[in-house]
Amino acid sequence: MTTRVLLVDDDDSLSETLALAIGKRGYRASRASSGDAALLAIGSADVDFDVVVTDLNMRGLNGIELCERIVLSRPDLPVIVLTAFGSLETAVSAIRAGAYDFISKPVAIDALLIAIDRAAKNRALREEVKRLKLAIERRPRFEQLIGESAAMHGVYDLVDRIADTETSVLITGESGTGKEVVSRALHARSRRRDRPFVAINCAAMPEALLESELFGHVKGAFTDAKNSHEGLCTQADGGTLFLDEIGDMPIGLQPKLLRVLQDRTVRPVGGRSEIPIDIRVIAATNRDLETAVEEGRFREDLYYRINVVHIELPPLRARAGDVLSIAQHFLDRFAERAQKHVTGIAQGAAEKLVSYGWPGNVRELQNCIERGVALTRYEALSVDDLPEKVRNYRRSHVLVSSDDPSELVPMDEVERRYITRVMEAVGGNKTAAARILGFDRKRLYRMLDRLDVDAKPAAG
Length: 460
Fold this sequence. Notes:
This protein has four domains: 4-136, 3-Layer(aba) Sandwich (Rossmann fold), CATH 3.40.50; 161-312, P-loop containing nucleotide triphosphate hydrolases (Rossmann fold, 3-Layer(aba) Sandwich); 316-391, Helicase, Ruva Protein, domain 3 (Orthogonal Bundle), CATH 1.10.8.60; 405-451, Homeodomain-like (Arc Repressor Mutant, subunit A, Orthogonal Bundle), CATH 1.10.10. α2 (35-43) runs parallel beside α3, α5 crosses α13 (323-338) and α13 crosses α15. It is elongated. α4 links the parallel β4 (79-83) and β5 (101-104). It has helices at residues 12-24, 35-43, 63-73, 88-96, 109-138, 150-162, 179-188, 207-215, 232-235, 254-263, 289-294, 300-306, 323-338, 347-355, 361-375, 388-391, 411-425, 430-437, 441-451, and strands at 4-8, 28-32, 51-55, 79-83, 101-104, 169-172, 197-201, 216-217, 229-230, 240-244, 265-266, 275-276, 280-285, 309-312, 344-345, 380-381. The longest helix has 30 residues, at 109-138. Strands 2-1-3-4-5 form a five-stranded parallel sheet, with helices on both faces. The chain has a five-stranded parallel sheet with strand order 7-10-13-6-14. Strands 8-9 form a two-stranded antiparallel ribbon. By secondary structure, the protein is an alpha/beta fold. The chain is built from 19 helices and 16 strands. 45% of the residues lie in helices and 13% in strands.
């Protein structure tokens, strides 16, 4: 939308000159010949000004007094003060009165335009922060899930539809996308909400220890088994068992888990009797399980047992519109915890957050905001408060054309670059890449090998 500027000056000639100059640059300028007239214009419901530019020395209310009045009634409206007396004392007085900026006469139009543009963007950012806070406060609570993008609304809809069923669920997505948060949302909205939610990371321990943790063991089952131990499957009886990183479960343990899921009974290590259990299973992984099945690293029968309903969480780079609302949520949390008066994110920092690729997804954004709150000396996070890799990030593009015939590349190179870009975008997930490219996975494998594309999954 066109930036609306109110010019306040009792020198009609100068006011008209400035109005014409900034009007040529695309701004919509209105004029007021006194401070009182400016206050009437600002208080009118007809126009919502984005920036006020006022002269310092005027009859009646001077620029400092006008600035103070505007700050009291409209703290969201930035004021730029112009004066022919560009002393340090005058500048300090203007800033103390709440002025956004201070420019000396004679006015350099380019400098004024830059100041107006910055002030308007600053106001727009403050309004966006207020809108985000209000949206967070008013939105229907969906546990700890945040985001209004189309991708997240699809997740919300699916969670709502299956939460109160007994169906097994497989949640996939890159590391840091919030798979456990979704699993807890499913549990909280189910009829099992008052029963235990028990989580285990299947990649965090060796096979023997994982088996004992899942199924329990009896006294004397092995050398160090001095007492019997109740497994997590039994602890979750009546509630939900969350199997995180199930794609990393040792292949030797997978048939034992399959039997538990099929029979709904568990036999502790070293035990002779089966213990009946009533659990709902939610599994999660950042691995490509379909490829793991084809390569013999994951049992096909177990895959179909856990994958009755599939929820795929989008990476944060695919929901850039949610970045600032999530960042504001974390900022409020960490500012309160640190007891610091940090209320928002400066425009430059917000632009960096939105443009960054977030390979670590929401977890990386959380870390970034926590760091920023710890470091900042101001009310709003600045670019300098962000990690270096976020500050210096430049989005990469795959270029496959040129007007110079000598720079054109063979079709194999075009394919290699594009497939590489797709593999980066999906975090190395071959199933997702094949779907985007319109291939079956076998054809994708052949092309990856032929074109020498690095297909390793994203770390994490």
